[in-house]
Amino acid sequence: MLEIIMLPILEDNYCYILKSPDGPCAVLDPGDEKPVINLLENAGWQPDYILITHHHWDHVNGIKGIKDKYGAQVYVPEGDAKKIKIYDHTLKDGDIFELGSETAKIIATPGHTMGEICFYFEGSKAIFTGDTLFAMGCGRLFEGSYEDMFISMQKLKELPDETKIYCGHEYTLSNARFCNDYAPDNAHIEKRLKDVIGLRQEDKPTIPTTIDLEKKTNLFLMAETEDEFAKIRKAKNSF
Ligand code: ZN
Ligand code: FE
What we know:
The chain contains ten helices and 14 strands.
């Protein structure tokens, strides 16, 4: 099983350090270099790889500093590669990335950006969703259409219920408030809002979440048609 360390960086981003039991180590979405290098030095770890979900600055700004220091190989989504500039390899839908004995299947999830990908480590029952799927939310549609993101949601919905979701931001409290406002009669959402308020009052992360929990409380993932999804996405934009 993959060892996963969550590192809160910038205002509300999560960067992740992934360590395979047989040694290899990767940094996923380093939006900043300093806190990542500090953590790696304290742990005595050397990253072999840098993995990127999409091209936004808060996910890529640490690439250069970490690559310069450790010589890590950088893997980026093919569709966002031109905008990322510093990289060694590109990944597309269906590709397999090997982190030692652990393998990740690449799932293309366009919508937030057109190139965005998720890293699904099936053996470890974990997926890194960047800014596509958040706890009780989904990313803003900066580049893709409602149809693109709706299809991306359907792909993620098919994953096993116990899959743990590691997303790119701690947005859960505002997402939970939105979901509760939009669907005030949903008892699962109401309970989760209370749980999330409790966690955030103690400054604890609400991540990881699971596919099972999202299927019960994430209106964006629960939407059954593209029209329903679009209506919810539009409502969230002005919430
Ligand atoms: Zn983003
Ligand atoms: Fe982001």
